[in-house]
From TrEMBL:
Lineage, top ranks: Bacteria, Bacillati, Bacillota, Clostridia, Eubacteriales
Family: Belongs to the bacterial solute-binding protein 8 family.
Keyword match Cytoplasm: no
Signal found in the keyword field: yes
Keywords: Signal
Protein name: ABC transporter substrate-binding protein
Pfam hit, one: Peripla_BP_2
Stored Gene3D superfamilies: 1.20.58.2180, Nitrogenase molybdenum iron protein domain
Domain (Fe/B12 periplasmic-binding) ranges: 57-324
Signal peptide: 1-24
């Protein structure tokens, strides 16, 4: 009997011991779990921000960020900066068309604080060329909406690293790497074409926009990044606007520049210059060397100047230097649209996009 009681006491002690150990272990795990729910992240502006470890709900700060992020993580969006246009809707999957409109910090500066609070994002992400006030700007967004906000540098040359950073941040390293490699590939291919062309082989180009075509994207502007890279952008001005609407010049100034090729923005005067006596004085117009930028779901050259410009690099190098580029632009466009817009680009859609944009032999 005595032995039996001792055995029972030992069993009870063992159970109590195991219970204590399990509780301690459970508390330890809970503590570790709690500690790992956030992480410190240093953005491209040098700001250290505390972010959730597992990010499932994001919003972009503006249209540039929206375009870049949509390629990587459309299913993490809980809102967009502005309503999709009818043009956008032709290429964007219907599942994303009813996302709440939240406004944007830059440009219109119309953030809807009530809507942002309602969709409860875990982070606001800004992507693009850093303004001089970027630190103060990001701090202001964060204070204004009470949600962590970060900036990721995203120019043509830095976008590969941006996608790798975003891939790590959002738990999408494989997808981020695929986009990074694509951007690196386009940059590399473009540089290879331009190495063949050489400085002396670059064509003189002006990019015109506006109701009368007399707004130009001047050399050195962020909006001229593609034009500057693949041509001799002769629109050289003492003061360069940072706005997407460009700088206003006179017809006399265009005549002095007299470019080999003129690129017209969508909605400008492309369709009327052939019958306009003033425009007919320009060599490019007389020689039929003028084209309209493809537009859908976004302008291939910018406006906004985001990842759409990789398609602009492909298009412009083929347009200006077909003997060196030798691209099958439809194949390139299909690849791009699938990767960045999650869209299966049809032949009819492509034909409409480049109807006024390529020499007939290159289409």
């Amino acid at each position: 009997m005595k032995k039996r009681m001792i055995s029972m006491l030992l069993a009870v002690c063992l159970i109590l011991s195991m219970t204590v150990m399990a509780t301690a272990c459970s508390n330890s795990k809970a503590s570790n779990s709690s500690a790992s729910t956030t992480k410190s992240f240093t953005d491209s502006a040098g700001r250290t921000v505390e972010l959730p470890s597992d990010i499932a709900r994001i919003v972009p700060s503006g249209s540039l960020a929206q375009m870049a992020l949509f390629a990587l993580a459309p299913d993490k969006f809980v809102g967009i900066t502005s309503d999709w246009t009818d043009l956008n809707k032709q290429y964007i999957n219907t599942q994303y068309l009813d996302l709440p409109v939240l406004g944007q910090f830059y440009g219109q500066n119309n953030l809807n604080l009530e809507q942002i609070a309602k969709v409860d994002p875990q982070v606001i992400i800004d992507i693009g060329d850093a303004k001089k006030t970027i630190v103060a700007d990001m701090d202001a967004i964060q204070t204004q909406v009470g949600i962590p906000a970060i900036h990721i540098d995203g120019t043509l040359s830095t976008m590969p690293q941006a996608y790798r950073t975003l891939g790590d941040l959002l738990g999408m390293t494989k997808e981020g790497e695929a986009l990074a490699k694509y951007c690196e590939g386009v940059n590399s291919d473009t540089q290879a074409v331009m190495d063949k062309v050489g400085e002396t082989g670059k064509l003189k180009v002006v990019y015109c926009m506006g109701d009368n075509g007399l707004n130009v994207i001047a050399k050195g502007s962020i909006h001229a990044e593609v034009v500057d890279k693949v041509s001799d952008n002769v629109a050289v001005l003492d003061s360069v606007s940072s706005k997407g609407t460009g700088d206003t010049v006179s017809m006399e100034q265009l005549m002095l520049w007299d470019p080999d090729v003129i690129i017209f923005a969508p909605g400008s005067v492309y369709s009327t210059v052939a019958s306009d006596p003033a425009w007919q004085q320009l060599t490019a117009i007389k020689n039929g060397k003028y084209y309209e930028v493809p537009n859908g779901p976004y302008n291939w050259m910018g406006f906004p100047p985001s990842v759409n410009r990789y398609m602009g690099e492909i298009w412009m190098t083929q347009l200006l230097y077909p003997d060196q580029a030798k691209y099958k632009v439809y194949d390139k466009a299909k690849e791009y649209y699938k990767l960045f817009y999650h869209c299966d680009l049809t032949q009819d859609q492509y034909n409409a996009l480049v109807a006024n944009s390529l020499a007939k032999t290159a289409k």
